[in-house]
Structure formats: C-alpha cells, structure tokens
Amino acid sequence: MQQITITRTGGADRLKIVEKPNPHPGPGEILIKVKAAGLNFSDILARQGLYPDAPPLPCCVGYEVSGDVLSVGKGVDTQWLDKPVALLRFVEVVTLPYRT
C-alpha cells in the first residue's frame, strides 16, 4: 500500500509517498479499503510541527477517510465485511479498533 508520510516538519515538500506492507487486522480490529480521504487543520499543524498530539516523525497522519471493510480481526462480527464506513486516516488500507 502507499501512504503519505511526514518526513520532517516544514512545508508541503516534507510529505513523501511511501510503500508499506498492507496491515492485517488484529483482535478487535477491522481492515478498511480507503476510497476517499480529507485533509484537516490538525494534519497541516502536524506537518508544521505544531500539533502536540502528532506521532513522532516520520509518521503518517490523517484523520478523515471513508471506505469499505475488507476483513475483520478476531472478535469482530463478520457482518461488517464489505460494509461502507467512515473513519480517519490517509492511507490506502488501515486497521482500526472495532467499537459497537
């Protein structure tokens, strides 16, 4: 999969498209095929080094996505497979904790 990574703080030139292996859902997680993503103010602040909750660099941020559930981890009802969902990340596929 490809993800947009902040390599170091600064301008938009600090963003890089990076190849990563597809994640697999662990217990209590779902895997989502991302169809659409958005950019919000916290993403810009993270890139500038001004967002206190950003993960350490290099990192992939992104707080807005929608897509379809590709697979589910142990403990997640398989009824979620192929269902559309809206969540928060800027990658092609993502695992997230499942919450009812």
Topology:
Elements: E1 2-6, E2 15-19, E3 29-37, H1 41-48, E4 65-72, E5 84-87, E6 93-97
Antiparallel strand pairs: 1-2, 3-4, 3-6, 4-5
Average pLDDT metric:
87
> What is the CA-based Rg, rounded?
14 Å
> Helix/strand-derived class?
mainly beta
Number of helices: 1
Write a brief caption for the model.
The chain contains one helix and six strands, in the order βββαβββ. It is mainly beta.
Task: Characterise this structure.
It is a single chain. The chain contains 1 helix and 6 strands. With 100 residues, it is mostly beta strands. Strand 1 (2-6) and strand 2 (15-19) form a beta hairpin. The radius of gyration is 14 Å and the shape is elongated.
